[in-house]
Amino acid sequence: MLSNQDMWTLFEEAYGFNHQNFDFEEVTTDPTIVTKRGLYISIQQEKRDKFLKQALYNGAVAAVWPKDEKLPLFLPNHFPVFVVTDPLPALNQILEFYLKKIEENGYDTMTKFKLFTNELKSMKQNDQAVNEITMHLRKLAMLEKGRG
Known about the structure:
It contains 4 helices and 6 strands, in the order H-E-E-E-H-E-E-H-E-H. The chain has helices spanning about 5-10, 50-55, 85-105, 125-145, and strands at about 15, 25-30, 40, 60-65, 80-85, 110-115. Strand 3, helix 2 and strand 4 (about 60-65) form a beta-alpha-beta unit.
């Protein structure tokens, strides 16, 4: 599974507590999805604060946040926030890292990626990034299907 420590390794700038390692059961870009130990990746261009609050209430235990946006004051101090230049390429980086981790170490249980449920139409300007992420998601799906 993708872990909190993996994220601290991937991204230099981060806030929140790094004292406890835990696994993410789900990674999502949709704040309306109820998750269990979820990593929320903020890829929306508007209302980021509102969406982050919604993701927090729906089970997100950490988030990926754009560097040029101020962190909302409502976030708990312990809540890990990984700050990146652009969340979409960061998502691609997370997927590449996770696929490599699975290939090198095997897996017992896998982190579920629930991406682009509502955002795809508004992301036409990022076709190349979305295509790369979609390719990684297909590879993950094949790996998971092969386990069954």
